[in-house]
Amino acid sequence: MSDTKLYYTIGEVANMLNVNASLLRFWEKEFDIIKPFKNKKGTRYYSPKDIDHLKQIYYLTKECGYTLEGAKERMKKTPDETLLSAEIVKSLNTIRNFLLDLKSEI
Length: 106
Fold this sequence. Notes:
This protein has 5 helices and 3 strands.
């Protein structure tokens, strides 16, 4: 994610998280903390903060197996810890994939 961009379209965010745009719209309805900017046409623009929240939701629901209610509860109790855990898991997966690629080349 580039630090120079202030807002990202729903398509860009969906590609970042490797999910469908419809799932992002669903999460927007379910989680009060996701508030993308909408222009007059209704086009959504997500801030980096929104994207961090979406990453937390993705981590909790898709990787940890939380229900939506469980994810909401966890994010209310320990929001910073959840984001840190998600970033650590992402980094470890990147390292793992790199090592597997390296192993296959040897």
